[in-house]
Amino acid sequence: MLIQPKRGICELCEDNPTSNQRLEWYDYKSRYTKAYENHILFVLVNSTISDVSLKENLGYDAIDGILERKVKG
Asked: Of 24, 53, 56, 65, which residue is the least packed, with the fewest Cβ within 10 Å?
């Protein structure tokens, strides 16, 4: 399941600017909730990215991206 935040368009403003809904339970521009990303980190303990990719039916790059965002070196 992917997140699709609500999007607003100002019909009265010049150039019709848009704004996206932002909530605490997900990071802006992330496709997954914070809870799911934390779940992925938990599943990664003593596992490889390839193992988790198979278990969660999620692409390698998606898991690698979660790991990069959550574990900032």
From this structure: 24
